[in-house]
Backbone:
């Protein structure tokens, strides 16, 4: 752990987000509760969870699209949750960027796709050799600039649009890239190309990528570290191999049991109920009462009980 | 080639002009406007004069016949159409404006602003508007077209506000708004280029609906005898017809023909609206 | 060999739009046998959902062009709509894509179900609801869900309700269109298993499971059909398709599937370059040729469907080369 802290570029500490709605009878939803992890340069961290697990909220908190209720987000040792002024925000976004799930809604349909480059140049970059820089970035994500620039979003495919956004991140030479379900809307045959590209660039440029996904197979394929989220809690984290080979939390176990995999048949003789996991988790927490989040081996931690 | 480029760039316009419903709707609507503008010039009578014998069925001299007292129904209808257009335009604009501003603020800022504005909207929505209108109208001894329009416009906005609010909410959560935010773009530019610009077609359609909605609301008021005290309007013509038992006396043209004109006008707006819905909604267009 | 419930021959259905024909389903031939689950896979725009719509409701601009679709011997393409309606739910039934969004937020589940089935001429009386309750029990739902509103239920629960309603009259043939796509991993497994259980217990005669996810089909389908850009690509037993694909598209699709146990560091998966062609007024020829590593001149002609192995059919001029590549 000591080693991990040393070279981490972003440190998430006890992050909590509570949503309140309703003026008279406030409804409280705990979207993220007490989540901590580190991000290191040149590594891919996958944040795995089902819908409502809080994984997207974590992405938005890091991007400052939401304000946390509690906890800290340290970027290069500085707490960024306190940044409020325009200049400070700009400085932060210069190095921390994102790619969202739906390529078609990531582009304003009324403008040509070039607008995403124009915006970053206007805000962050020197406009000298602008065109040349854009061409270079597009070519490095295997896009032909002639065929991409000056087009409207609906004239391009989802795969092309996501590559374009990767090119945008490249132009900025970002430290941290939040990729929220970036390929879940793409077809099987095109998604792998985008994914390979992302990993390649991450390794080459020393980017730190937070790969948010619900797809365990994809998570395993790309990531060095894995975080498993369940109902707003980080229930298991560690190096991808260790978490996948030796899952301990009942929720993680259930996930690995239900993922469809070619060449590995589900055991259909055993009854499988998705509702069962709620009871399993409760039982697990009860048995381990008093324990909290503990490291079970090097680079592998598990939440044993949520009532510590 | 140049023409092709133009249509490529203005794809929505192309689809609008090739959509049958939009074309039919616009044609009828234009005819109605022309009738309202040039109609009075086509008729030798004025709307209040006794133009001939009473009880005349439609003929060459009196296209829509005459009333019991001998007023020319066609003349009254085209003058009435003018004021109906005026009501639709003024009241529709007022309702759309108020609705857009309230809906936009509520949707964009959310939290307590949203709660407060939506509470006001809901109060207006469930308030017995007819009672309010009757009191207001009765309180004002002299009512012109303008007064009627303002009264109708001030009460017709709540559903627009709700529709615009939900539209703003959905656009606010689009990926491109978030992308602009993390691109260091100013809030003002995001509001203008990402949110307002993408709501334009929606607001336009809301306006068309408000146009026909306020026309019908005004006719309803007039029919109850709360219409303008000066001038003439379609609702007033029909109210007179009913007051004089026109149908029972066999003067069907007095009531039916102005009503038909009103129906055609509202239907043409409906056609434009559903047609544009197909145009602006790409998924429907593809199918 | 088992009886064929559905026989499709050279079925074509196009979207007739202003600019011409979108040839979304262009000459597809296959059978569905009693007691089997046939998986239909392919990427978006391959025609798999058009196939479902063609069989059930052809809303304009989707138009039937030619070919046959025989359900229990009757050609349902040439059948008047009123006749076909009588087969709905009893002989043929569908779980449409996006069915989860179809729940009315203002109606109780019970009312929603009642309205739905009465459209198909079933009276939602006590006997009907007793049967519903019995089936709900089978999918591990308490009958009290009938008195709840749709927002109170999770996606997985709603999908289960839709599944038991669409199979309430024990149809011979059920089309399941992307029933797992919008669900979480755990619900996916339950819903896919449920489809197989319905078949095992004889509640449905057979099913066509349409999805983009080959790995789910591997779990429950006996045979898999692969489609590409409106064309039939390949059909065969699941194991055969997975281990010995004979169409270059199937092969590429399998090579792009991530599996637990494969990491980027150790083995690089490969995608397919390019995108599927636009189907508007598309001419003859193999539609995969623009992205195909096995492309030859012959591919300018539309490939014919040929038998390559027991129960294994392929539409590709070069399937022999691909077969030998698999073993080499």
Residues:
């Amino acid at each position: 752990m000591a080693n991990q802290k040393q070279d981490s570029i972003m440190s998430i500490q006890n992050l909590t987000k509570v949503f309140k709605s309703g003026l008279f009878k406030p409804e409280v939803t705990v979207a993220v509760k007490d989540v901590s992890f580190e991000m290191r340069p040149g590594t891919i961290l996958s944040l795995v969870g089902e819908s409502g697990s809080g994984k997207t909220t974590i992405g938005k908190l890091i991007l400052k699209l939401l304000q946390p209720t509690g906890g800290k987000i340290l970027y290069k040792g500085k707490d960024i949750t306190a940044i409020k002024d325009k200049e400070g925000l700009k400085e932060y976004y210069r190095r921390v960027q994102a790619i969202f799930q739906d390529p078609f809604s990531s582009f304003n349909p009324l403008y040509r796709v070039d607008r995403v480059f124009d915006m970053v140049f206007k805000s962050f970059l020197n406009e000298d050799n602008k065109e040349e820089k854009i061409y270079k970035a597009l070519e490095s994500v295997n896009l032909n600039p002639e065929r991409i620039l000056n087009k409207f979003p609906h004239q391009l495919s989802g795969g092309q649009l996501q590559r374009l956004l990767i090119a945008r991140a490249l132009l900025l030479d970002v430290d941290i890239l939040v990729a929220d379900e970036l390929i879940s809307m793409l077809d099987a045959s095109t998604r792998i190309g985008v994914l390979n590209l992302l990993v390649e660039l991450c390794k080459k440029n020393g980017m730190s990528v937070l790969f948010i996904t619900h797809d365990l197979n994809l998570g395993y394929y790309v990531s060095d570290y894995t975080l498993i989220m369940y109902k707003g809690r980080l229930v298991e984290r560690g190096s991808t191999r260790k978490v996948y080979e030796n899952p301990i939390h009942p929720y993680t176990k259930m996930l690995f049991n239900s993922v469809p995999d070619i060449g590995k048949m589900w055991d259909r003789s055993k009854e499988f109920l998705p509702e069962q996991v709620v009871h399993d988790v409760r039982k697990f927490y009860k048995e381990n009462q008093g324990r909290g989040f503990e490291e079970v081996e090097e680079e592998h931690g598990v939440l044993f009980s949520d009532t510590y | 080639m140049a023409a092709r480029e133009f249509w490529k760039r203005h794809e929505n316009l192309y689809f609008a002009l090739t959509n049958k419903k939009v074309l039919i709707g616009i044609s009828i609507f234009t005819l109605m406007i022309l009738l309202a503008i040039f109609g009075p010039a086509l008729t030798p009578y004025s709307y209040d004069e006794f133009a001939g014998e009473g009880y005349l069925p439609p003929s060459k001299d009196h296209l829509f016949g005459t009333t019991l007292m001998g007023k020319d129904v066609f003349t009254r209808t085209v003058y009435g159409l003018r004021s109906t257009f005026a009501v639709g335009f003024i009241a529709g604009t007022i309702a759309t404006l108020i609705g857009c501003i309230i809906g936009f603020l509520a949707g964009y800022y959310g939290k307590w602003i949203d709660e407060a504005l939506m509470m006001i909207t809901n109060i207006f929505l469930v308030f017995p508007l007819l009672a309010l209108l009757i009191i207001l109208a009765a309180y004002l001894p002299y009512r012109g077209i303008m007064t009627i329009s303002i009264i109708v416009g001030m009460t017709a906005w709540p559903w627009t506000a709700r529709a615009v609010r939900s539209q703003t909410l959905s656009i606010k959560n689009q990926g491109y708004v978030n992308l602009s935010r993390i691109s260091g773009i100013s809030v003002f530019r995001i509001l203008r280029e990402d949110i307002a610009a993408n709501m334009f077609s929606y607001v336009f359609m809301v306006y068309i609906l408000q146009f026909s909605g306020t026309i019908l609301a005004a006719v309803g008021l007039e029919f109850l005898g709360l219409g303008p005290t000066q001038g003439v309007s379609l609702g007033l013509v029909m109210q007179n017809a009913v007051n004089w038992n026109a149908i029972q006396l066999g003067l069907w043209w007095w009531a039916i023909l102005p009503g038909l004109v009103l129906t055609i006008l509202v239907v043409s707006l409906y056609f434009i609206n559903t047609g544009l819905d197909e145009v602006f909604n790409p998924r429907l267009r593809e199918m | 060999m088992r009886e064929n419930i559905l026989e499709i021959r050279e079925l074509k259905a196009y979207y007739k739009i202003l600019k011409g024909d979108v040839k979304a389903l262009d000459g597809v031939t296959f059978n569905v046998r009693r007691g089997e689950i046939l998986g239909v896979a392919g990427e978006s725009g391959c025609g798999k959902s058009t196939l479902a719509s063609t069989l059930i409701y052809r809303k304009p601009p989707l138009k039937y062009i030619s070919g046959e679709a025989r359900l229990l011997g009757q050609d349902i393409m040439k059948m008047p709509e009123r006749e076909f309606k009588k087969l709905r739910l009893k002989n043929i039934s569908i779980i449409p894509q996006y069915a989860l969004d179809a729940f009315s937020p203002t109606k109780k589940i019970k009312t929603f179900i009642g309205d739905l089935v009465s459209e198909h001429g079933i009276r939602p009386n006590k006997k009907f609801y007793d049967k519903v309750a019995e089936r709900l029990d089978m999918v591990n739902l308490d009958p009290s869900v009938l008195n709840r509103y749709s927002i109170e239920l999770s996606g997985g629960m709603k999908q289960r309700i839709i599944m038991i309603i669409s199979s309430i009259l024990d149809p011979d043939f059920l089309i399941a269109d992307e029933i797992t796509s919008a669900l979480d991993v755990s619900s996916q497994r339950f819903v896919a298993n449920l489809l197989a259980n319905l078949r095992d217990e004889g509640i449905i005669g057979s099913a066509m499971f349409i999805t983009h996810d080959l790995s789910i089909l591997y779990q429950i389908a006996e045979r898999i059909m692969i489609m590409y850009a409106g064309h039939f690509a390949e059909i065969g037993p699941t194991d055969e398709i997975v281990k010995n694909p004979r169409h270059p598209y199937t092969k590429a699709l399998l090579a792009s599937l991530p599996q637990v146990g494969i990491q980027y560091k150790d083995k690089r998966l490969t995608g397919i370059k390019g995108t599927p062609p636009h189907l508007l007024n598309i001419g003859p020829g193999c539609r995969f040729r623009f992205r195909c590593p096995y492309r030859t001149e012959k591919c300018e002609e539309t490939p014919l469907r040929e038998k390559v192995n027991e129960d294994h059919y392929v539409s590709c001029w070069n399937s022999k080369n691909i077969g030998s590549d698999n073993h080499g």
About this structure: Chain B has a mean pLDDT of 84. Residues 23-45+67-286 of chain B form a domain with the MetI-like fold fold (CATH 1.10.3720.10). The interface with chain C takes residues 18, 286-287 of chain B (CB under 8 Å).
